[in-house]
Amino acid sequence: MEKISAITALAALAQGSRLDIFRLLVQAGPEGLPAGRIGERLGLPAATLSFHLSQLKQAGLVTFRREGRSLIYAAEYAVMNGLLAYLTENCCEGDASACGVAVCDPIGISDPRTRSARP
User: Fold this and answer.
1) What is the pLDDT along the chain (119 residues), one digit of tens a residue?
2) Residue 24: what are its φ and ψ, rounded to 5°?
3) Residue 6: CB partners within 8 Å, gap ≥ 6?
4) What CATH topology corresponds to 3-110?
5) What is the reported pTM?
6) What residue segments make up the domains of the chain, in order of their start?
7) Least packed by Cβ within 10 Å: which of 20, 29, 77, 94?
């Protein structure tokens, strides 16, 4: 990840509602959540939610797909992991593995046998 992309992603996540949305989508796994459910879970009006989702999309942190009349949003794990790698690339004198820094593997999240119960 380049510096400009990291700044854009961090700026998008620097707002409380956007951070809440992104965290919810990361927890949801690769299948994502419909926009309406995101709004319900976080208590955000549709217009406000739409604005924040747009900002996260522009930063490359979320993707969406259409299913019928619904828009399903999902976290972009590759970008998230790239941001984490960028932030930790010089950790522990350049050996991030020595710090125990890991990346998120959403594949395991979607397998109900390997995920813990979610609220």
Assistant:
1) 899 999 999 999 999 999 999 999 999 999 999 999 999 999 999 999 999 999 999 999 999 999 999 999 999 999 999 998 888 887 777 676 677 666 666 765 544 434 443 33
2) -60, -40
3) 83, 86, 87
4) Arc Repressor Mutant, subunit A (1.10.10)
5) 0.81
6) 3-110
7) 94
